[in-house]
Prior knowledge:
Blueprint (H helix, E strand, L loop, with lengths): L1 H14 L1 H7 L14 E7 L4 H14 L1 E7 L2 H11 L7 E4 L2 H9 L9 H6 L12 E13 L31 H14 L1 H13 L9 H9 L5 E5 H5 L7 H5 L1 E4 L10 E8 L6 H11 L2 H10 L3 E2 L8 H4 L11 H18 L3
Parallel strand pairs: 1-2, 1-3
Antiparallel strand pairs: 3-7, 4-5, 4-6, 4-7, 4-8
Helix pairs in contact: 1-2, 1-3, 3-13, 5-15, 7-8, 7-15, 8-15
Amino acid sequence: MKKLLLAAIACISLGGLAACAESGSDQQGGDKAAPITGEVNLYTSRHYDTDLALYEDFTRETGIKVNRIEADADALIERIKSEGEFSPADVFVTVDAGRLSRAEQAGILAAVDSEVLTDRIPANLRDPGNRWFGLTTRARIVIYNKAKGKPAGLETYADLAKPEFKGRICMRSSSSVYNIALLASMIAHDGEAKAGAWAKGVVANFQRPPQGNDMSNIEAVAAGECDISLVNTYYLARFDTPEKRKVLDAIGIIFPNQATTGTHVNMSGAGVVKTAPNRANAVKFLEYLSSESAQQVLANANNEYPAAKGIAPTSAVAALGSFKPDSLAPSEIGKHEARAVELYNAARWN
């Protein structure tokens, strides 16, 4: 299977899936794809080319064709709700724990009885009622300009609001789902008052108004334009290449809250839609995504941590170091995301 996946990824990079279709079984020593015997309809907010390679391999292996609609997770949730019992959606996929919880709370996901999934995916990375399952995870960490030294007294997310860091922090917009999920987790842990005060304190420490994304803020910290930022681990791992290594070498890393709640993590995940017209195929698709070969491609493609047990991340991610993750349930994050947005607005974190 791993050979199939690598070949599919190579085809994408060299000219699209059409090239794979043209070369077909000849590249695999004469192996033939299974005849198309069914389909599964995917509503997804993931948009990586290597996912396409996985879909192709799943179809080759099972004969089940993958149809997909890509859009923002919230838009997909609303679409499934509006389509009701006539929705063609079989599987919902998103890149945010809060959206997984929101889909579950919206009542659009079904419980799945699968020993394969419950054996492979740890309990803290799946819904207690098995209505969704994590696929990959990433941590939100503090970075700093290594040449200027590790900022004294910066060990937790709360420390970012200390007045001694005034004029030293650059961030992306508060509309980022990653920032929303982080503040939602802080509400769950510490309450709204402390979370709101933290947002205001960080805003007071901005070196510039929020702008760009995690990648551009990594570059800004490396260049000394600002000293400190918050980024996802997979963005930092993208700089572990010969061409970009200079940026990575200029960055220091802090995994926050190691002595308390643990570093905040978010995840991509999926669930079977309650009204799925192809439920058996949907379950089979999720089981496939939890397999070792699929997990390696899912995680490696975006430098994330595999959700399934016993699978190591890429060397670029492993090089960032080990850490204690926050074990907060995604349902707690989803519960507080709306309030997190309000607190960011009150703090004028644009």
